[in-house]
Design goal:
Layout lengths: L1 E12 L2 E12 L3 E5 L6 H8 L7 E6 L7 E3 L4 H4 L5 H6 L3 H4 L7 H13 L15 H15 L3 E5 L7 H16 L3 E5 L3 H7 L2 E6 L2 E7 H6 L1 H10 L2
Parallel strand pairs: 3-7, 3-8, 5-6, 6-7
Antiparallel strand pairs: 1-2, 1-4, 8-9
Helix pairs in contact: 5-6, 6-7
């Protein structure tokens, strides 16, 4: 079942179009990787998928049954130095469902505990976030996103700034979540990781959609072959 359907969408700002002709679907259980050069419109598309940016033309439809999108943004230097405990940050993923309740419920706390256990960070619950390694911090933020929804995760360059081992560990964790049934949309500049972990590729650039389809089809396409050659695959 399609959780997100994008139909001939044009995205941009008041001063002009960033990208147009976007048409793709994200089915339940997919792992879609979004590729493209810097300035190609990936960040604008992320905002549109989250409902933070209106579509100029065309439309982006979401399945009413989709309970939300857990979002893992690119980290900033300020965020890496955030002085809160791991437990506090993971629990904050429950804020959207709290409504007017001023405190976390027992259910919220239990969900956070289960999610930390699932992602292998339960032993870090009382630690200060800013004292963690980059890979540990990303696991914490991924746990927070999972507390927001168990349907879909949108990850924006999740391995940026991590060392090679931490990158592989995080990619493998994301792949496991996908195998467990969570739909993944991941923005990345790493074409080798994209073809290894994704089920589908969306490639945008030059102000338009340049490819959407399965990984196997991408490998055989002219844009895919060119990008893979540049990426060293």
């Amino acid at each position: 079942m399609a959780q997100i359907t994008c139909i001939d969408a044009t995205l941009g700002y008041e001063d002009g179009v960033v990208t147009e002709g976007l048409s793709f679907t994200v089915e339940t259980g997919d792992c879609l990787c979004i590729l493209g050069e810097n300035g190609s419109g990936k960040s604008t598309l992320v905002k549109a998928l989250l409902g933070l940016k209106p579509v100029l033309r065309g439309k982006i439809e979401r399945d009413p049954a989709l309970t939300g999108i857990g979002y893992l943004p690119q980290q900033t230097v300020v965020q890496r130095d955030f002085p809160a405990s791991v437990r506090e940050i993971v629990r904050s993923g429950c804020l959207a469902r709290m409504g007017l309740r001023p405190f976390y419920s027992a259910e919220d706390k239990a969900l956070a505990d289960r999610t930390m256990e699932q992602l292998g960070i339960a032993s870090l619950a009382g630690h200060c976030y800013r004292d963690l390694s980059g890979g540990q911090q990303q696991r914490v933020l991924l746990a927070r996103a999972l507390c927001a929804t168990r349907s879909m995760l949108l990850l924006d360059e999740p391995v940026t700034g991590l060392d090679p081992k931490a990158q592989i560990d995080l990619y493998e964790l994301i792949a496991k979540l996908n195998r467990d049934g969570i739909t993944i949309i991941m923005v990345t500049h790493d074409v080798n990781a994209a073809v290894r972990y994704a089920s589908h590729i969306l490639h945008i650039g030059g102000g338009k959609q340049r490819f959407f389809g399965t990984v196997d089809a991408y490998k055989e396409s002219s844009i895919g072959k060119a990008f893979l050659a540049e990426g060293g695959a």
